[in-house]
């Protein structure tokens, strides 16, 4: 009802010395402790009274958490505490994963991007997360420090529902890993918000296209959607069509139709399901047209 | 006489010069002091408020015992402690609810504690039992006989003599216009348009939420520090509600971080004062969270409006019949006068021989409505100006030509029977039409875009009691500088700068040599009714000019006596008294405090110079309650026009305003750059209400009480090109001919945009905000796109 909370509730700030210590603390304080990196969602939810944890466990300072590393063989590693402005400013990201920078640029405002992290965006598991689509189409995986050891989680199977992921108590995402993107890839993120800047997505469309001589059309496409399902949605069906047929206006239209049919948005204060579905169609068409045109242009340039 | 004087009077420097703002440096550097910046000492207590979760309910019992027992709690109060009513035009509010709650957020109890956290805990320990009642959620239904009665004691409330409540109903004001013969006129009309429009509630969203700090000393003297547009009105209303003398209430008002009307009158300040009466000697701070601001601070009324208008075959307006149902919310102590203003301006800025209008202020169980920049005019013009466009299209006349044909002109008998004063409305229309290249259609920037242009015009009078007064003093300092005392408030609109310019001009000293005394403090500052109604440049400006002239007269008489000359031969130029006759000269320095020596050390003449001035309109008359007719309804109207060019993206429904053009007749621009800044700010606020803003209310409960889902325009949403055109047709009783323009620029923005969208896609989108979704689905439903 009426939020009368003027400030944050009391909590204890915990700064563990090692990942193992952090993980153990989380296990020892189930339901009372929460990991914290940027805090852009955490503090808001604590003030709103939705999150009532007694301890905030800060892991930003631990080794590797703030690393941006590109390896021409293995790809990109982003420490989980790298903030979005650092991603946007990274020469490696812009050279090899420009779609990631493009998507991060649409998140909130510059000030918030100084705190917000892509790993936080992912672990928050909001279907509206702007950077999740780019991570999905780049086939990102998460490096997780759990009580039982270290493991990789594929992002494609990471989300279970709004705010829900496969992470267990004590799990700490320490890195995001992106494989080397397909040669000649071109991408586009289209976010439809109410305002020009700083809004949450009514819908978000991520498209990555790249040449592949093994498919009839010569190109493959990956498409991910924000804000139109309980989790970020990867739509495979349209990709299949575009592998079969060259990306003419008709094919793109048909693909956009398939994408629209694949999503299941709801009505909320930001938009109706009806509008969202129509926008998924129109903006997928727009994004595909743009990417197909960029791919064609880059093909001619070779 | 005033007119002749204005004509004769030379416009002195720096009137009409865009001097830099007097408060720019401290605001830009962050040095400016706002209410929450002040240190109130170690005795400071913090207040929180227990509020109603129901839109409409009876209070059965309140149990404060647990809250009182909580360590750190110093006082817990309820409505039982404060039986007095409060309100500006209609006293319909208790400070704390006594028997009934009328909106979600209605204050039921208050706590003062040694910390905000303890106060909050105490609030949670207060147990209130309610009997939930059926809420009234629609003003049109609420005005009818089947609605639950929200204020059963409406007939007993104290009310201003120009407000007409209808006891036994939810109608807290019914304003009528009956001019000419509307029924008889329809048959002469070649075209008639009838439309219904709706406008949602919106809020002011000042960057600084409401804050009040109150202290009551052992003698019962109240001191209130707050973010306030209306220190004197607050002094008066709080004193009356608590049964105190006005002289025992001191309101101190530092800089305001945005008001837009929400900090006019009294709202949450009375809560802080009431609580402070129970903890004598200790200041009590109450500051609203942004969510509380959304739930409980004033909101702009929602409106359901019916317009019927007709013209002859040549396009001349013959008749209008308008009905307004204002969603006044739980209390309408202030907003009853908004519905009156909309009633007496209900024809819009048009010359219409036959008008029938009914403007109903209706209680609902929605948030409390109050004044907001435009005071009813943006809501009313939104429908009216789209309807005018439809009528122009219906009769086949270009919308600009239609407006030029029908707009109100000097000497017209306007809707209330008042004779229109000199106005530059036609010039405003012509200038915006020219600037927007009306009639020329540029191609859209992309195949998925549709381009359109739209225009809307407006008028607005200061809405206030007929005798709202201003006063000022101008005190000279040893070095020949002057300090101006005013009771009006700097809200960002630039009034302190304009007052300094007027004092400098009227005295004859440089602008840089004038200071404005602040903070406004009712114990030290001269009386000012309120900082509202775009009235300060005009009304307080007159008082300041009069005070400066009074100081000037004192100085000239002193020097004339010393020089044995006639004061009429003397002048003050650039801080120096000169004689055009003897060519003597003496700087103001020292003489304005110490006077001048008589020859041969034979004593002194003169002494410290303090000029005083006042202004109060004396000519506004009452209106007949049945017809709304009378000789002079208002002091004057500021008029203007806006036009926009925009593009609609037919794949998303998103609208981009490419440019906006606005022209207003300000009488005389005292500071042209600040007039332009007001126009730009008003235009962007209007644009924000056109595209984004709306309080989403479901069963009386606000669904978007934060900026996450209450969107406002940012600079990125504003067009890069906003052109402000200044038209100057002098106001006969305005200082140097000036009249106000603070509110006016947001009045025509919604309909100008609505008309441009129609021009672009051929569809009316319905009620604002014209979100991308509404625009897109309107196109789908009209069959324009699939």
Describe the structure.
The complex is a heterodimer of chains A (302) and B (786). With 302 residues, chain A is of the alpha+beta class. Chain A has three domains: 12-58, Uridine Diphospho-n-acetylenolpyruvylglucosamine Reductase, domain 2 (2-Layer Sandwich), CATH 3.30.43.10; 68-178, Uridine Diphospho-n-acetylenolpyruvylglucosamine Reductase, domain 3 (2-Layer Sandwich); 186-301, 2-Layer Sandwich (Enolase-like, domain 1), CATH 3.30.390. Chain A is 35% helix and 23% strand. Chain A has eleven helices and 14 strands. In chain A, the strands form four sheets. Chain A has a five-stranded antiparallel sheet with strand order 4-5-10-6-7. In chain A, strands 11-12-13-14 form a four-stranded antiparallel sheet. In chain A, helix 2 links the parallel strand 2 and strand 3 (55-58). In chain A, helix 9 packs antiparallel against helix 10 and helix 10 (249-262) runs antiparallel to helix 11. In chain B, the strands form nine sheets. In chain B, strands 3-7-1-14-11-12-13-22 form an eight-stranded mixed sheet, sandwiched between helices. Chain B has a five-stranded mixed sheet with strand order 9-17-16-15-10. In chain B, helix 14 (495-507) packs parallel to helix 15 and helix 17 (672-691) packs across helix 18. Chain B is globular, with a radius of gyration of 27 Å. In chain B, helix 14 links the parallel strand 20 and strand 21. With 786 residues, chain B is of the alpha+beta class. Chain B has three domains: 2-32 and 468-615, Aldehyde oxidase/xanthine dehydrogenase, molybdopterin binding domain (Aldehyde Oxidoreductase, domain 4, 2-Layer Sandwich), CATH 3.30.365.10; 35-133 and 210-287, Aldehyde Oxidoreductase, domain 3, CATH 3.90.1170; 302-464 and 622-781, Aldehyde oxidase/xanthine dehydrogenase, molybdopterin binding domain (Aldehyde Oxidoreductase, domain 4, 2-Layer Sandwich), CATH 3.30.365.10. The model of chain B is unreliable at 1-7 (pLDDT under 50). Classes of the chains: A alpha+beta (302), B alpha+beta (786). Chain A binds chain B through residues 1-7, 10, 192, 194-200, 202, 269-272, 274-275, 278-279, 282-283, 285-286, and chain B through 48-49, 51, 53, 104-105, 116-117, 120, 123, 287, 289, 291-292, 295-296, 651-652, 654, 691-692, 696, 701, 703-705, 708-709, 711, 713-714, 716-717, 771-773, 776-777, 780.
